[in-house]
Amino acid sequence: MTAPDIMAGVPASPRFECDKEDDAPRTKQEVFDSAMKAAKESSGVDVDKRTSDGRKMNRGFTVSLGSSADVDRSVLRSDKRAHTLPNDDARRGDIEITDDMKEEFASMQKTLMARYRRGSVSVFHTVVPQEELDRCFKEEVVGHSHGLMTEGQHHGDEREVVSYGTVAVDPAPIVSCQKGCKGFKDVSPNQDNFSITYFKSGYTLICTFDGHGPWGHTVSHRTVQTVPYYLVVESGFDDTKIDESTIPDALINAFTKAQKDVVAHSLENDWDIQASGSTAVAVLFKDNKIWTANAGDSRCAVGSEVDKKLIFETEDHKPQNEQEKARIEAAGGEVRSQVYPDGWVNHRIFIKGKDYPGLCMSRTLGDCSVKEHGVVATPEVMMKEVDLSKNVFFIVASDGVWEFLDSQFVVKAVAKKIQSDGAAKTLEKLQREAKKRWKAEEGDYCDDITSVLVQMR
């Protein structure tokens, strides 16, 4: 079954195609990788990283095809889906940031800094020190974990995590946050991040954010912490009881303050937030109630292990959505569409009359260059009550999962495997399946992939 088959419709008996690989004989590459991993984990053994890199680059092991400069990699991608992978670290179809664009973004950032220094009400915001965030998660909640900024990772590496306190739900959420591959010899950071926060009131918050742009990893790393932080310090989530009627406004306020904080953080720490941002999906749950707050195309899908059916999914915020497009155009933004030879249509948002920023999501955190042109940070908040006798679960994931797998397929496949393989193994297979689809559709390019699996009991 190919990725287009999945996108066209959900098969009657969905399964992860990577299942068949589990019992297959291991390739030479897999045997070598296993041996290298074992060597690195053995006491007193030092593995030269250049050895493994060289092995991965020349996959035949016995015959070298010459240096990488001899290979025309555009030919290798010529039959792939979008035919648009830039030469540097970007997603297929992304707009290349030219020197002229960089100058305009720098000018925008300079203007923003001037307004910030003047104390403009719409810009000025006190940045929360990292020490205060850490204190909050150590003292004001039952437990918390989030992904650390990690350098030097390779394709498939898991993000390092910091944790405080205890896990307050059983079974515990299962998380995987893996770096993608954004070009030959990719050294860019994993721009996905996540957080899990257990509040004293018994509510749990799951955040999965997907950064983009030159500083997208900073936006996602910052905001997966500040969204739960503002729930605590401004909406009473440090208390043992929560008025559920206040939750929608509390989630919107947390996103709003996280946006203000990350803008101020960029100004105080001298990094450019004009063309850097993050999509976001936050899921708050307790007992049989689920609240979702999402901005962009990171998504939550809720399903049942009993019925193996999709119960609910958040709606992606794309520029081609009529309501989103109307808001953008009313604010002076412009939605442009491009059709590729294979029929794939790429919709992106630009400042009217300009060739930037070419954003493909209509709601994000960060991305100051288009905040006055209809791309808002305000999340869409929904509440869903579920029947726990149906063994409800949900998946909170970045579009590294959803790009080539739709919600119905994922829910049915997970519901089937979770009963036989358990949650941890099922999430591992979901991550592998997503990578397999990226390989089939985009060749060597693969987005960062993050998913969190929660079983509600």
Strand residue percentage: 15-25%
CATH superfamily of the domain at 119-317 and 361-455: PPM-type phosphatase domain
Q: Mean pLDDT across all residues, rounded?
A: 83
| Unreliable sequence segments | 1-12, 38-92
CATH topology of the domain at 119-317 and 361-455: Phosphatase 2c, domain 1
Number of helices: 13
Shape type: globular
**Main sheet makeup:** 8 strands, antiparallel
According to DSSP, the number of beta strands is 16
Assigned CATH architecture of the domain at 119-317 and 361-455: 4-Layer Sandwich
Just give the CATH class of the domain at 119-317 and 361-455: Alpha Beta
H-E string: HHHHHHHEEEEEHHEEEEHEEEEEEHHHE
Helix content: 25-40%
- Please report the distance between the alpha carbons of the first and last residues: 33 Å
Q: Could you say which structural class the secondary elements and strand pairing correspond to?
A: alpha+beta
Radius of gyration from CA coordinates: 22 Å
Please summarize what this structure is.
The protein is α+β, with helices and mostly antiparallel strands and 457 residues long.
Please render the helix and strand layout as text.
Layout: H1 3-8, H2 19-22, H3 28-41, H4 49-57, H5 73-76, H6 99-117, H7 130-139, E1 143-147, E2 161-165, E3 174-178, E4 192-198, E5 204-212, H8 216-235, H9 247-269, E6 277-286, E7 289-295, E8 299-304, E9 310-313, H10 322-330, E10 333-339, E11 345-351, E12 357-359, E13 365-366, E14 380-385, E15 392-397, H11 399-402, H12 407-421, H13 423-442, E16 449-455
Helix pairs in contact: 8-9, 12-13
If you had to describe this structure to a student in words, what would you say it looks like?
The protein has 457 residues and is α+β, with helices and mostly antiparallel strands. It has a domain at 119-317 and 361-455: PPM-type phosphatase domain (Phosphatase 2c, domain 1, 4-Layer Sandwich). It contains 13 helices and 16 strands. The strands form 3 sheets. Strands 1, 2, 4, 5, 6, 7, 13 and 14 form an 8-stranded antiparallel sheet that branches. Strands 3-16-15-8-9 form a 5-stranded antiparallel sheet. Strand 6 and strand 7 (289-295) form a beta hairpin. Helix 8 packs across helix 9 (247-269) and helix 12 (407-421) packs across helix 13 (423-442). The chain is globular. The chain starts with a helix and ends with a strand. The relative contact order is 0.15. Mean pLDDT is 83; it is low at 1-12 and 38-92.
